[in-house]
Amino acid sequence: MVNAYISRAGLGRHLFKSGASLAALMLLTACGGSNAPALKPLSTPVIRAQQPVSGLIGRTEAEIVRQLGTPTQENIESGAKRLQFSRNGCVIDTYLFPLRANGQLVVTHVDSRRVTGEDLNLANCLKLYTGR
Description:
Elements: H1 2-9, H2 12-15, H3 19-31, H4 61-68, E1 73-77, E2 80-87, E3 90-98, E4 105-114, H5 122-130
Antiparallel strand pairs: 1-2, 2-3, 3-4
């Protein structure tokens, strides 16, 4: 837009010969209007904590065993524990870490799948597991 104005006025060669002319050109380009809409400030994102469907997160080993029964497999490594529960074609792995002040292990993560290895969301896996 500015270049078209300059060449129409026949001033193109003369404006670029001196630094003062360059400053004038910069002022002209800064004065140009814009059709861009005004930017709105971003709103603060709303973060909602997802409630675990199972109620397993944050539970102790004793509470998990009460809810799911005796684990089919148990592994301990580097102070953490994995309890695996398997029934009715569903496998649930719970991972327990010492997060409490007294060192008591609590569930921090849960994985679920079919016994064939296919992914299965936890809600559906629990339905299969409990038979409900």
